[in-house]
Amino acid sequence: MQSSSLLNQIRQQFSALRKSEQKVATYVLKHPSAAIHLSIADLALATEVSEPTVVRFCRAIGCKGFQDFKLQLAQNLAQHSNFGAYRLQQTYTPATLETVFDNTIESLLKAKNTVSPAVAEQAIIRLASSERVEFYGFGASGIVAQDAQHKLFRLIKHCAAYTDPHMQAMSAATLSADDTVVVISQTGRTDALLQTTQLVKQTSAKVIGLCPEHSPLALLADWVLDIGIQEDTDRYTPLLSRIAHLVVIDMLAMGVALTKEPEINNQLKQIKENLRTLRLNKKEK
């Protein structure tokens, strides 16, 4: 069963469920967002049934068990959520913090579903084999670019991040076919970034895009890691897309590290030794 049809599956099978299982179904249909955060004991308590009944309910609707049920429900909500319902209120309330966490979890699930594992693998192989890697971005995406450089410079000998269009343009002129630029954008429509990416393409260097699929920036990229997070930027700086971008950068860094083992082991060991000399307790690891 596809996760996108889980709630419909519950509605369709509702009449075939036992009365005790219908209690669980009713709660899940009314409070799906709350249900994904409950333990099996909490859900049983909330619906006044036993824990084995919750497990039977999960299997009755086609899930392997309770954890599989929660995973499919979370994916269901991520794929079919109404963003407007999750906007922050005009004034602060205790629920504000929970809303921020829920929105972030939702955005990460969306990114997980939209980023192609095959494309990610190709991007990792390209980064690991590149002579030089640069990260371009502006604003909040510029911060992500700097974080990416901080993670990758230990793995790739020549690694830099540029958040100024003039620096990007000058650096682009020095690239070669063995180099790779990762362009980061929440919208994929920033004119200055499009211009510098076009300069990169003229050098035969490759481009990896962290941006929405089918955006102008994505059309220029050789590989696109599709991250299209919709959010309210009228009142707040981009929050959700930034977190999703950071997680994807972590994924790329981990992939590069694993790809380049064991050749970088001595290098990483030396970096760790150097950092140890800066601590008060030199023996601390």
TrEMBL record:
Residues 123-262 form the SIS domain. Residues 4-80 form the HTH rpiR-type domain. InterPro entries: Homeodomain-like_sf, HTH_RpiR, RpiR-like, RpiR-like_SIS, SIS_dom, SIS_dom_sf, WH-like_DNA-bd_sf. The keyword DNA-binding applies. Keywords: DNA-binding, Transcription, Transcription regulation. Coiled coil: none annotated. This is SIS domain-containing protein. It comes from Zooshikella harenae.
